[in-house]
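## retry 2 of 3
previous attempt timed out at serialization; input unchanged, resubmitting
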Amino acid sequence: GAAQSMYMAQLFKTLELREFPYAKNCIFIPFSEVRLPTGKMSSRTGDNVLYSDFLEEIAKYAKKEIKEREPKILKSELEKRALKISIACMKYSMLKQNANKNIVFNPKEAINFEGDTGAYILYTYVRASSILRKKGKTKEDFKVENLENNEFELIRKLSQFPLVVENSLQTLNPANIANYSYQLSQIFNE
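## retry succeeded, writing output
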């Protein structure tokens, strides 16, 4: 958070004095504060979320969801997928919010498999990868004829990616890319 600005400035200066090659490229992007839906996190009152506890909670939920969709999955594959989904849920729930405002971290929303969540975007990625895998690696020419409106919309959205990335860089706001990813996922899934 913003309270760490002095510490980060000292760290960057230390890296510079130690002649770390990329010290001058280091940037600290502070956010106001991470809060729970009930308010400010506080270790004194016990009202906070521990990373390890939350990762375990999400992984447990993810395993349940995966087993419902694929009952015969191997345990090792179940563990691997659950970890990936858990990390995607946590990262996306934080990244989709503007860093210049208080970030409200809602664990129940973060672990949802549908809607504006990391799991939904990850599902879309897996689905798109499957389609490409089935298509195979060919470089044959193809003709695009008679695009439907939703297909045209997908192409239009894909063409915006470089601008979204550039805007995120200029504003130092990764939420632009996160929110673009969700919008792209919605259009693709339609």
